[in-house]
Design brief:
- This protein is an alpha+beta fold.
- The protein has one domain.
- The chain has helices at about 30-40, 90-95, and strands spanning about 25, 40-50, 50-65, 65-70, 75-80, 85.
- Strands 1-5-6 form a 3-stranded antiparallel β-sheet.
- A hairpin with a 2-residue loop joins β2 (about 40-50) and β3 (about 50-65).
- The two termini are about 35 Å apart.
- The relative contact order is 0.20.
């Protein structure tokens, strides 16, 4: 491991994500009931903050960090230990690819 000569501390190293295969589902209006059943989530009505006349359904899902709100377009991810988490589409698509 590289050492800094002047102060003797260890420099950061690069790491590759080795999470294995996960199950995931992107939340869309058609998928809400199936996603709720799959992860034990609860459907909630959401209102578009820019247009109060637009409503859609989201999910509150149980995670290790407490209940998280999953909105349309977000992904629900089930890891190798069976725990659920929420990821935004950009982060999910940069981290995982379909197999």
């Amino acid at each position: 491991m590289p050492q800094h000569r002047d102060v003797g501390f260890t420099l950061p190293r690069q790491y590759r994500l080795v999470s294995g295969v996960v199950e995931a589902m992107q939340l869309t209006p058609d998928q809400v009931p199936a996603a709720a059943l799959w992860c034990g989530g609860m459907e909630v009505d959401e209102i578009d903050p820019l247009d109060a006349t637009k409503k859609f359904v989201g999910l509150n899902i149980p995670t290790l960090d407490g209940v998280k709100r999953v909105s349309q377009g977000d992904y629900i991810v089930k890891n190798l230990r069976g725990e659920f988490s929420k990821m935004g589409p950009e982060e999910f698509e940069a981290t995982y690819e379909p197999i």
